[in-house]
Amino acid sequence: MRLNNFIKNNKSSFVPGIIIPSLLFIVCTSLLSVFFPTATDYYLSIVKNALFTNLNWLYVLVVTLFVFFLLFLFLSKYGNIKLGANDAKPEFSFFSWISMLFAAGMGIGLMYFSVAEPLSHYADSSLQGLSMEERSKDAQLYTFFHWGIHAWAIYGVVGLSLAYFTYRYRLPLSLRSCFYPLLKDKINGRAGDVVDMFALCSTFFGITTTLGFGVMQLSAGLVHIGILPHVSFTYQVIIVLVIMTISIASATSGVAKGVKFLSQLNIVAAVILLLFVLIFGPTTFLFGSLSEGIGYYINAFFNLTFNTHAYEPERQEWFFNWTILYWAWWISWSPYVGLFIAKISKGRTIREFIGAVLLIPTLFNFLWMSFFGNSAIWLDQHQAQGSLSAMIDQADLLLFKFFEYFPMSHVVSIYSLFIIFIFFVTSADSGIYVMNNISSNNAEQSPKWQLTFWGAMLAIVSLVLLNAGGLQALQTMTLITALPFAIIMLLFCYSLIKGLLIDSEYYDRPLSHATSSWSGAFWKERLERIVAYHEKKDVNQYLVKTVKPAFEELKQEFESNGIIAKVESALSTSPHFVEIKIQHENMADFIYGVRNEAKTVSDYLRNEGNAPDITDEQTYVPHTYFGDNRAGYDIQYFTKNEMISDVLKHYERFIALSSDQKNEIFLGQNLRETD
To answer: Which residues contact 530 (CB under 8 A, 6 or more apart)?
Structure first.
């Protein structure tokens, strides 16, 4: 209650229903990890291992669905839809956009795992029966798999759903908005708060654990190059304070300034380091292995995508500790990364968004992991004599040990530390921005102290857990939350498809069929009908006074031309209809009918003051139907002569189709039924 009053009295944009329960959960979980780190990690690990062992197939299935869902949207007509109004323009240049989404999504992981992961796969005991060449190729393949399209498809589903409903439907940039087609205005209630609480806690835990483990790598690197005398908690405190001070300054300056600048600096610095490894490493081998590795990945794509290693028990432990753990980790990070890339993607088309998010970071990851990983494996085979692969349990130091085999190793190690530092800052500043966005339900204006609050929370919790040894427990907790959020993401996909169908129908819907013959002759009568919403009796009267006389007149004219037609109707009992039918012996009957159909009127139209006066939830319209079950349409504006003209159009179509032998399958129904 006090926190609630504090929020109201200090002009905060925090939403009490989100921030209060989220902070309680964060504090309680952190305290458990601090005071009972071993026990907490032990019991959480039991849950995690149970999920990974028994439901690994579900992780594989949902991630596979995300990949093919985005590929479907990319290739479909929905790819042309913009994330925003039809005339919306992108807020950021293409380079700035790519730099920011990439730095937020993968940056620090590339530095930490670029050497460690390929060497770990290469040295894995379950692959020892293979030749050195086969292990090298598989190491690159699995690294590509874990850092490729599948990882970015997870981010892409959340980011696309958020961007679409935020900029197309003009809803808040909040995970709850992704449920609008399912929940409508209920997203503003308790259900929406729960979804945002989940996203806020997941984002906080993910960034906290990454910050804590990253500080360990930074401090180990600083000791390795001689800047720090030894690893100590005091030095780690200083590192965290420096990182968070810069991150808070960047976040408070806004996405268009600090975050954008640091992201661009990050990507440029990373490319320079990548070129250094390429030039001073085994260059020819690296280019050849990259080409072969991409081909190997494409060739093995479907096998990798669906493989659960059910027939390879010796590979199960590796599968759980790498692939399933990665899928869970990417899913747990997806609320944070998805929110951030949605924030910077206004004005892009769905096809542009999916193409950029899936392909560009994936290709860069392939370059990075191939040049670093294959260089490390090549050096381990030709110069290090296995000493690099022997250090796979010391991932914090492995990158710096790797640089010892390059010229200017000391300078390069310092430069790599600078990149790691900037990657941390970009992850932290975008994380601060996203957490404030979630906790304030995308408020347009938030006081800067809120951003400072989140930065301070990240720093304090990460340092306390680092000192108490509770980071592993918090990481395990984060991985456990991934599976329920994966189910939520499946609902995002369903909701997005539903929204796109409505979107496409709205913008592609042509003018009413009944208006095609309009001129200005009866414009006052037309307007009167447009603004009048009818009861059932009004449509029945239209059937009696307009439709039935038109059909009777047509019947007489058909008979004068030697064609027998019948007019049938039911106007006193439901369902109310009138139809004209021409029966045939050897082909389907021609039927043109009009029935009285109910139509639901939207709440917002009924509640609008400056709109036609509508009191009931339903209105009624005369709706056509046909003998071949084609979709009918509303004909409430037709005069009698226009009604006759419309029937003749359909009869002419029927005769034209009947004259073509290939249409026998549709028009020979009566003959087939007789046989």
So the answer is: 612, 637
